[in-house]
Amino acid sequence: MGGRFLCVCSVVASLASASASAADLPVDLELVLAVDVSGSMDLDEQRLQRAGYLQAITHGNVLDAILSGPRQRIALTYMEWAGPGAQSVVVPWHLVDDAEAAERFADQLADAPLGRTRYTSISAALQFAASLFDGNGFAGDRQVIDISGDGPNNSGAAVTPVRDDLADRGIVVNGLPIMIKSSQLPTVTGFDLDVYYEDCVITGPGAFVVPVRALGDFTDAIRQKMMLEIAQVPGPVLVAAQARIDCGIGEKMRGNWYRSP
User: Fold this and answer.
1) Does some domain include residue 16?
2) Which residues are bridge partners to 80 per DSSP?
3) Is 108 exposed, middle or buried (0-12, 13-18, 19+ CB in 10 A)?
4) What confidence category does residue 242 fall into, taking pLDDT thresholds of 50, 70 and 90?
5) What is the CATH number of the domain that holds 205?
6) In this structure, are residues 9 and 53 in contact, taking their beta carbons and an 8 Å threshold?
7) How many domains does the chain have?
C-alpha cells in the first residue's frame, strides 16, 4: 500500500511540475544581474555602479535591443553578492517588454538601499544566481548571468568547477571586471582581472567580458554589456581562449594580498 501511495504521489508531482513548466511565460532571455557589493567596493564606487545599472535598464538602446528579439520581451532580476553566505535578491524577476516596465524595474532598484559586506565569493554568487532560474515563471530561449566583480574568488568553493557546472546546464556567464583600484592591477596580483574573468569565470557560447577601468566608465560599460547580451551579439574577446593563469590563485592567496575589510 505504501509503495502504491508513493508511486501515485510521484506521478501527481510530475504532472504538477509539467503543468507549472507549461505555464511559464516564453521570453527571449532570462537575465540575472549579479552585482558585487564586497567591502573592497567603497560607497562612491557602489553609487556609480548602481547608477550605471539604473541608466542602462531604462536606456533607449537597451530597450531597442529587447524589442529586437522574436518575442520582444525579457525577464530580469537584480541580486547583490559578496562572501559565501552573502547573496540577496534586490529586485525580483520582472517582465520587461516596454519602457514602462523598464521604469518600474528601475524604480524598485532605486528605492533599495546599497548593500555592503565582506569577502569575494564568485563561486557562491554564480551558484545563487543559477538557482534563481528555477521556478521563476519564465521560459527563456537563453539564460544569462551578468556578473560584476573587483577581485578574484577568495572565499567559498573553487570557482572553476562551479563555472563548468553552469556551462553543462547551458547557462551563459558574462563578466564585468572592475579594475579601478591598485588591488586589481597586475603589480599586485600578477595578472589583469579581465584576464582572470576571461580564463576562470565566463562561460558559454559568445561569453565575453567588458572591463571597467575608471569610475567614469561604469555607465557606458554596463549599457554596452546589457545591449550585447540582450541582442545576443558576441562581445569583445580580450584574450586568447587558452588558460594562462592559475584560476585558484585567489583561494591560495586569500588573506595575503586581497581581503575585503
Assistant:
1) no
2) 35, 88
3) middle
4) very low
5) 3.40.50.410
6) no
7) 1
Dihedral sign of CA atoms 138, 83, 56, 105 in order: positive
**CA atoms within 13 Å, Cβ hemisphere of 237:** 10
172: in domain:
yes
> What predicted TM-score, i.e. pTM, was given to this entire model?
0.84
**Is the pLDDT at 9 greater than 60, yes or no?**
no
Looking up cell 558574462 gives: 174
pLDDT: which is higher, 8 or 174: 174
Q: Return the closest-CA partner of residue 34 out of 184, 138, 137, 162.
A: 162
Burial class (CB in 10 A: 0-12, 13-18, 19+), 146: buried
Q: By the 8 A CB rule, do 191 and 200 touch?
A: no
**Could you read off the pLDDT of 105-135 as tens digits, one per residue?**
999 999 998 876 777 899 999 999 999 999 9
Q: Is residue 245 part of a domain?
A: yes
Confidence of residue 190 (pLDDT cuts 50, 70, 90): low
Q: Whole-angstrom Cα distance, residue 130 to residue 251?
A: 22
Question: 229: helix, coil or strand?
Answer: helix
Say if 6 falls within a structural domain: no
Would strands 74-81 and 87-96 be described as parallel, antiparallel, or unpaired?
antiparallel
Beta bridge partner(s), residue 41: none
What nine digits make up the cell of 100?
514602462
Residue span of the structural domain in which 43 resides:
23-253
Q: In what order do the strands lie in the sheet with 172-177?
A: 87-96, 74-81, 25-36, 138-149, 172-177
